[in-house]
Amino acid sequence: MKAKRIYDFRGFEGPDASLEISLFEYGLAWKCANKRKQEYIFVYGIRASDKGEYDRFAYSTLSLADWKATVNEPWFKAESVGNYFERSAETLVKGFPESLHEGVIYHGTENIFGTCYHEGFAIV
Questions:
Q1: Per-domain residue ranges for the chain?
Q2: How far apart are the C-alpha atoms of 81 and 52, rounded to whole Å?
Q3: Distance CA 50, CA 18 (A)
Q4: DSSP states of 61-83 as a string?
Q5: For residues 29 and 23, is the Cβ–Cβ distance under 8 A?
Q6: Span 28-49, pLDDT tens digits
Q7: Which DSSP category does 7 fall into?
Q8: What is the pLDDT of residue 1?
């Protein structure tokens, strides 16, 4: 897949105020795709370089309804995740899409977004 330019992701937000840091260090950024459905496009890191920075990425689309369902799954253990981040399980849902980052930290991208069956794309 052809590399994407960082400016292709204008309007995306992430766990850091800097889009570059959000993508390359945290491996996550999002943008609202459908306000009415509270649906977001997530770009997430699937591989890190020897330097520890993400260098391959994939896309996924999740809505607030999807996130609620995930948080309420028995395997997610919302109370444990909430305790780990010193917040209640309810704030994991209410804080979407920002709180999805906490789910990724706790469970990993594969458990949150599913398995990525391609090599992803680079961002330059």
A1: 6-113
A2: 25
A3: 22
A4: EEEHHHHHHHHTSGGG-HHHHHH
A5: yes
A6: 999 999 999 999 999 999 999 9
A7: G
A8: 66
Length of the chain counted residue by residue: 124
Least confident of 3-7, 37-41, 99-103, 108-112: 3-7
Q: Provide the token pair at 41.
A: 């496009």
- Position 19, amino acid: L
For 74, counting Cβ atoms within 10 Å of its Cβ (0-12 exposed, 13-18 middle, 19+ buried), the class is exposed
Q: Encoding tokens for residue 116? A: 């990525």
* Residue 28 tokens, joined: 């996550």
Per-residue pLDDT tens over the stretch 52-92? 999 999 999 999 999 999 999 999 999 999 999 999 988 99
